[in-house]
Input
Amino acid sequence: MSQVIQLQVNGEAAECAAQTLLPDYLQQIGLNPRLVAVEYNGEILHRQFWEETYLQAGDRLEIVTIVGGG
Output
């Protein structure tokens, strides 16, 4: 059984399995990683680092969905 860690996502408590990559977590919560921007522990996390970012207990994520329109 994998360990569950506690996070804060958009100001609310959340959890995921330990050693979850950021893009995998985004998909698990129903978001398309190509259509969001992520602030990770107070810093905008550039997309080039997502594939090497494993979520840790206590991490704080702010996730903003990109919406198109005119």
The chain has a mean pLDDT of 94. Residues 20 and 59 are 12 Å apart (CA to CA).
